[in-house]
Design goal:
Elements (H helix, E strand, L loop, with lengths): L2 E5 L3 H12 L3 E6 L5 H5 L2 H17 L16 H4 L2 H25 L3 E4 L1 E4 L4 E5 L4 E5 L2 E4 L3 E3 L12 E2 L13 E5 L3 H13 L2 E5 L11 H13 L3 E3 L4 E6 L4 E5 L4 E4 L1 E4 L3 E3 L32 E3 L10 H15 L13 E4 L4 E6 L2 H6 L5 E6 L4 H6 L5 E6 L6 E8 L2 H4 L1 H8 L4 H5 L10 H11 L9
Parallel strand pairs: 1-2, 1-7, 2-3, 7-18, 9-16, 10-11, 10-16, 11-12
Antiparallel strand pairs: 4-5, 5-6, 8-17, 13-14, 14-15, 19-20, 20-23, 21-22, 22-23
Helix pairs in contact: 1-8, 3-5, 3-6
The protein binds flavin-adenine dinucleotide.
The site of flavin-adenine dinucleotide has 37 residues, from helix 1, strand 2, helix 2, helix 3 and strand 4.
């Protein structure tokens, strides 16, 4: 029976372990913190649980318009939030999910070794268990070691006022004025959530607009919503340092301006956990950023060593990590394998409104010089959205101008993460706009706008319509 050793028990690692067991391998997972990885313990699960509380306030904002008395004015919200209860719920959910994964792996016969693993050559993993070392000889190794928050040497997190996202759930009180450094997905999600909970938020963005790299219309819409809700968005502003003051923090920007607040969250991306664990010594090629180089079936430069998830830098998403891990095991253990198709990945930004995307983005279509047709339907025109009092959002589709095949889409709406699925199906199965347009949607429903957008594109075939 081949022995698979998985280093790292996040979604890249534990999903792979289950697949490898199913394919008949002996499987050992080495994990230094807790099963579920950063995804479960500090990143996805905690942030989305916190955002669930924030959403409650965003929904309540609609109250007066819908005829409900008693909206909490933004200034009084902080008093309504029991942050200790919120954080306790966040941590309990994360802990429970980690334990569930632990039991599931044990039930499936996966051996779990607690400790920090490192490669000793291409087919041996040595684990520092804290009390000694364990050596595991492997036929196949999967590296799924993830990443940790990037910090700035001039803004050293102290867990009290200068924070990474992993430290937010230790706060006893809601920050009065939170400065968020970094306007990527993580920065935008937390900025939106704390603003909704009643913190005053300043979002420091080094770029022209928030969410660089995302659909430009969606990013512009979200920035407008942030500003309308009272958030201060500082564009083209790069943080140089953050220090504690007597009762808060001071963030100095590279142009010399100083922003003062009660707390600062540093959300400037992650660093792969690939240093000092014997990778280069074993011949595993790393990129300049320290990510493990992999192909589309998760192979590294060393036969028998695979890698999945954030340590590969392919796409920093739990769903992609899990898919890469599964693909790696199918490949290593001789099962049918379909290479990863990054152009089909669905992703969501959990702001209010949410921004969900799938397939090719407009910037990729343009960069590659593809011909395409597109249409954007504002949510405000959708009958269900009107009834719900929703205004901010849209549905956008991209399709091939001749064949009508759906190439990608963007949904900006509350619960866009759920609404994107019909477009995901269309992209995955190369459905045409007519296939989508001819399918029934419930009346009235937000998904009606997806079918409507497809109907608009039906009439847009031919050279003239192609962008
Ligand atoms: C705030 C935030 C919110 C996010 N929200 C979402 C979301 O909503 N949806 C989504 O799809 N993605 C989200 N992501 C991204 C997602 O968290 C990552 O893509 C995902 O965690 C990657 O999984 P992974 O298995 O590669 O790594 P991880 O989840 O980081 O797991 C790696 C594991 O390896 C362990 N490890 C590391 N080195 C060693 C070693 N030497 N020996 C033993 N164990 C080791 C670590 O302890 C860790 O448990 C979010 C990220 C952040 C920061």
């Amino acid at each position: 029976m081949p022995h698979v050793v998985v280093v790292g028990g996040g979604p890249g690692g534990y999903e792979a372990a289950l697949v490898a067991r199913r394919l008949g391998a002996r499987v050992t997972v080495v994990e230094r913190h807790g099963l579920g990885g950063a995804a479960v313990l500090t990143d996805v699960v905690p942030s989305k649980t916190l955002i669930a509380t924030a959403e409650w306030f965003t929904t309540a904002e609609q109250g007066p318009e819908l005829g409900v008395r008693g909206e909490a004015p933004a200034g009084e919200r902080r008093d309504l939030v029991d942050l200790e209860a919120v954080n306790a719920r966040v941590l309990a959910l994360a802990d429970a999910q980690s334990r569930d994964i632990h039991s599931r792996l044990e039930r499936e016969g996966v051996e779990i070794v607690a400790g920090a693993g490192r490669l000793d050559g291409p087919s041996r993993v040595v684990v520092d268990t804290g009390t000694g070392t364990t050596t595991l000889d492997a036929d196949t190794v999967l590296l799924a070691v993830g990443a940790t928050p990037r910090t700035l040497p001039t803004a050293v997190p102290d867990g009290e006022r200068i924070l990474t996202w992993t430290q937010l759930y230790g706060l006893a009180e809601l920050p009065e004025k939170l400065i968020v450094v970094g306007s990527g997905v993580t920065g935008a999600e937390f900025a939106g959530a704390y603003q909704a909970l009643g913190s005053q938020v300043v979002l420091v963005s080094s770029r022209d607009r928030v969410l660089p790299g995302e659909d430009m219309d969606a990013a512009e819409l979200l920035e407008g919503v942030f500003r309308a809700r009272g958030m201060t968005v500082m564009s083209r502003s790069r943080a140089a340092s953050a220090v504690r003051t007597e009762d808060g923090v001071a963030v100095t920007l590279t142009d010399g301006r100083v922003v003062e607040g009660s707390h600062v969250l540093i959300a400037v991306g992650g660093v792969p956990s690939t240093a000092g664990i014997g990778l280069e010594e074993a011949g595993v090629r790393l990129s300049a950023s320290g990510h493990v180089e992999v192909d589309r079936v998760s192979r590294t430069s060393v036969p028998g060593v695979y890698a999945a998830g954030d340590c590969t830098g392919v796409l920093p998403l739990a769903s992609v990590a899990a898919m890469q891990g599964r693909i790696a095991m199918s490949h290593a253990l001789g099962d049918a394998v379909a290479p990863l198709k990054p152009g089909r990945v669905a992703a969501n930004i959990f702001t209010a409104p949410e921004i969900a995307t799938v397939g090719l983005s407009e910037s990729t279509l343009r960069e590659r010089g593809y011909r395409y047709v597109t249409t954007t339907l504002p949510l405000a025109r959708n009958p269900r959205a009107k009834m719900l009092g929703m205004r901010d959002g849209f549905v956008k589709l991209f399709a091939h101008p001749d064949a009508g095949v759906v190439l990608g889409g963007v949904v900006v709406a509350p619960r866009a993460s759920e609404l994107i699925f019909p477009i995901t199906l269309a992209v995955a199965h190369r459905l045409t706009v007519d296939d989508v347009a001819d399918s029934f949607t419930v009346y009235p429903s937000l998904s009606g706008s997806i079918a409507e957008a497809a109907r608009v594109l039906h009439g847009q075939s031919g050279e003239d319509a192609a962008v």
